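Regression test case RT-17, inverse folding.

Input:
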């Protein structure tokens, strides 16, 4: 099958029809070396210190998790025997506590032969929650911090005690760390320079062999993998600048997979024989938050006026990897809807009307609107120092100036951005990058009353009782109706504006079978089921 173009947002579960049953699986070809080209090389192979997409792709090969997410956004058991739910009694609510029980599969071993046990689960939790371990700055440990105790009832069973209801419990423990792999060092001595970060031990389908930074990383098949043996014998990641030599290697079939290509690079490969090129909606998106504690932006009409003054299509023309979005959820999510598009289309006349009727009059002397108290309509925008974010900010500055709004821009690195948002008086508007929502649980981090910086990412400082009631409800797990209520309130109150989602381009050799993109768990999520013709 030759797939040259795939519509944006499509999860490509249909690249192979049907489900591979055990009899078919056993008869599929074994052997061969898979070469993956990547422009982005991770700085570490320890999930504690690197959460980049390039790192996650390798983590899927090296590490196992309790539960993982497939290309349909459904949870499936990995190290766990089953996915715990309320229905199968794997999850129970005991007053304010929520208790989740995981039973580990038997005959699961680390790559060095040591058994995987409940102690490794406890150790992983301790690593994520220990404040003395300086983890990656973008590491979201909120879910781990909601756990107050983990019991090991036997070597293969853990009971995890959450101090409150946490609907995304199955999104934790995606990559389990080996306790013995860090010995004899203590938790306090684990840091980004620990030898494990560059020579990891996992329990996944492939074993780490060698890493030559800037050149290649080699992994061999794990012959003792607890699931069916992967078909591919060896995986090599090759790194370096994209150039003609890379194109030639792809054309000759020496590289079978090129992930995260730019749209321009994908277009260069589109007409190469035996190469399938496709676009996939990533989990990455840019969002704008209005600080609702701002003296100016607590007025809904001002927020609406600014929303109508943003021409997303015009901005996206400069960046092929951007696609306008009208939802904070992923296009393939069950809670996705784009009704915001019907409410806040680009309309400068509407912006002007809303400002005029809110009592902000343009001052002929300086062109800046002022209210009856002679207060200027002047706003401070903060953003990260990415090229795209700065371009969005400069566009807004120009467009808002036509409306009589003065916009001051402050661009900074991610660390300083996080510090700046702690004080609500430092900014009126924030532009940042985040992951799209899947089932809505992560909305709590960006919209919940308890998630004001530095405890979360509620940059809008939004506090809506109706939304908080939904967030705190124990019936919220995958509740599409509840999430649509949240979406409706977001449209009405406009604390945030979803701006753009990012297109990820991929080139795949037609020799590679059963490749199914998964932007939640990484495209290599099912690599043990791939095979080469």
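Golden output:
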């Amino acid at each position: 099958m030759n797939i040259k173009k795939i519509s944006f947002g499509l999860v490509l579960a249909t690249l192979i029809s049907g489900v591979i049953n055990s009899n078919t699986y056993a008869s599929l070809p074994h052997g061969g070396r898979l070469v993956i080209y990547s422009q982005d090389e991770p700085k570490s192979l320890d999930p504690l210190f690197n959460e980049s997409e390039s790192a996650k792709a390798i983590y899927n090969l090296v590490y196992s998790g309790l539960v993982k997410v497939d290309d349909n956004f459904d949870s499936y058991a990995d190290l766990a025997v089953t996915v715990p739910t309320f229905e199968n009694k794997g999850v129970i609510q005991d007053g304010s506590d929520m208790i989740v029980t995981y039973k580990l599969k038997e005959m699961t071993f680390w790559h060095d032969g040591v058994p995987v046990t409940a102690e490794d689960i406890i150790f992983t939790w301790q690593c994520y929650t220990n404040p003395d371990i300086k983890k990656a700055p973008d590491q979201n440990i909120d879910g781990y911090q909601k756990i107050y105790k983990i019991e090991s009832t036997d070597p293969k069973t853990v009971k995890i005690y959450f101090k409150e209801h946490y609907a995304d419990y199955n999104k934790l423990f995606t990559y389990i760390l080996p306790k013995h792999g860090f010995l004899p060092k203590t938790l306090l001595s684990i840091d980004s320079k620990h030898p494990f970060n560059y020579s990891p031990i996992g329990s996944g389908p492939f074993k780490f062999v060698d890493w030559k930074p800037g050149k290649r990383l080699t992994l061999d098949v794990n012959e003792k993998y607890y699931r069916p043996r992967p078909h591919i014998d060896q995986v090599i990641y090759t790194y370096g600048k994209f150039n003609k030599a890379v194109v030639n290697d792809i054309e000759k079939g020496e590289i079978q997979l090129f992930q995260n290509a730019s749209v321009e690079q994908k277009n260069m490969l589109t007409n190469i024989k035996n190469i399938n090129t496709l676009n996939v909606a990533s989990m990455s998106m840019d969002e704008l938050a209005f600080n609702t504690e701002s003296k100016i932006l607590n007025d809904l009409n001002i927020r609406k006026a600014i929303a109508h003054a943003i021409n997303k299509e015009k901005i996206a023309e400069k960046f092929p990897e951007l696609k306008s979005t009208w939802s904070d959820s992923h296009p393939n999510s069950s809670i996705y809807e784009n009704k915001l598009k019907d409410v806040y289309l680009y309309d400068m006349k509407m912006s002007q009307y809303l400002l005029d009727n809110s009592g902000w009059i343009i001052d002929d002397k300086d062109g800046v609107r002022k209210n009856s108290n002679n207060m200027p309509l002047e706003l401070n925008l903060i953003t990260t120092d990415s090229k795209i974010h700065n371009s969005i900010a400069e566009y807004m500055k120009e467009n808002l100036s036509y409306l009589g709004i003065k916009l001051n821009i402050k661009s900074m690195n991610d660390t300083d951005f996080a510090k700046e948002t702690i004080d609500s008086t430092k900014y009126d508007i924030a532009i940042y990058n985040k992951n799209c929502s899947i089932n809505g649980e992560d909305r709590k981090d960006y919209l919940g009353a308890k998630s004001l910086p530095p405890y979360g990412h509620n940059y809008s400082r939004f506090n809506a009782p109706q939304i908080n009631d939904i967030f705190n409800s124990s019936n919220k797990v995958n509740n599409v109706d509840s999430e649509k209520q949240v979406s409706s309130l977001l449209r009405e109150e406009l604390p945030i504006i979803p701006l753009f989602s990012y297109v990820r381009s991929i080139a795949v050799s037609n020799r590679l079978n059963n490749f199914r993109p998964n932007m939640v768990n990484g495209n290599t999520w099912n690599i043990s089921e791939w095979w080469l013709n």
